[in-house]
Amino acid sequence: MGMSPSETEEKASELFELRQSERRDLDRKRAYLRGDPELTWLPANTPRELQALARMSRVNLCELAVKATSQQMFVDGYTSENKAGASQVWRQWQSNRWDRKQIGVNRAIGGYGVAYGIALPSDSSDTAVMRALSPRQITVAYGDDDDWPDYGLEMRPDKTWRLVDEENVYKMRRTTRGRRSSDGKRSITFEYVEETPHEQDVCPVVRYLAEEDLDDPVRGDVEAVMPLQDQINLITFHLLVAEHYGAHGRKIFIGQMVEQLEEQLRASASSSLTVRAKPSDFDVKEVSQVQLDGFIDSRESAVRYMSALSQTPTHELLGNLANISAEALVESKESNARKVRERQIIVGEGHEQLLGQAGRLVGVEVDPGARVRWKPTLDQRAMRFVELLGTIAGKLGVPKKALWHELPFSDDTIKEWEEMAEEQAAAAPPPPQREQQDQPEGDQRNNLAAV
Q1: Taking the C-alpha atoms of 390, 394, 399 and 400 in order, what is their torsion angle to the nearest 10 degrees?
Q2: What is the largest CA-CA distance in the chain?
Q3: What is the mean pLDDT of residues 427-446?
Q4: Helix, strand, coil shares of the chain as percentages rounded to 5?
């Protein structure tokens, strides 16, 4: 049995309070992800000129750190012992445009530490609906089961609300006429509209995590480097101030004729100035330009610390590839490669869970051994891996076709190769038979003796 209308209203209001408690933290992470963090170190009464320099001092490296990982994570296949079922499940991925939507999932995982996917039935019996959601769009509540939540409250783009449990999707409406809940603990701010069964025995919301931690909440890529991002912005602000006010040498005029000199400076663009004063009454002091090397070195040092904490190649954050050999470039990406491999394992479990639910909606039983296939990046490491597979096939006698699925190509490409290989094998003429097989036994012994 599903919830009654009054129960849905109380549960939606409870989840909305949870959403409000999470909102500030999520909005703060989004501000850093967009390169627009609050300038907490800037006094409120700062002159407008310095405020403009402070706004220009934001150097958005958080987004770059997120992209350095997310741009290497693309699912391009789904494998299962049930090949016909796997093909039907993969069709759900393609029909819901998840080749594109997975990019948003990866960015949300890196930015917020978590993202969500939901699988629901559609009007067609052979198609399911799969949607990607950020934690700013849906709030979920978990019970004893870590794999499936008990409830989820989603705000749709049209500002309507949906409450999901293990049986139904409830359409809800926000209201300003609040009333107290049955236990008197909270104000009810939702009204029940209608419900629709989703034909599943679980709340069909899948959680994607950036990392697995048994003690602390997952933070994502942005929260860990927020202090360093603030530090980089502050150093850049000091650099801009030094450039703006002290990058050029300045002269200071000291004497009784200063007011007259100021009027002359405002009225004339000439580089020659005439000062009518005794040498004892007037003096000129010169202030040398500010040296910027210290600011630049300090900022580069902070960027290197951010690179280490976020496991992002330093040259990508600094934009500097000078004097880096090919071997050093590969080694500089090793830490990020380990991070990508770990995240692919965690996120891959989420994709398999979501695709399993989508397959169940179209009549395909969930295969616990099914897995998604990640598209490898064709870099120097991948080319070395291909060479290693060739060595395995040549020296260990492993059939070449058995190694095809280990290659950095999509399942569709390998499937085309297999079909082409079968066609070539069918069209190839049979191998010629040896003449010795048609000769009498005595002639064969004579031939061997002659040899």
Answers
A1: 30
A2: 133
A3: 60
A4: 50, 15, 35
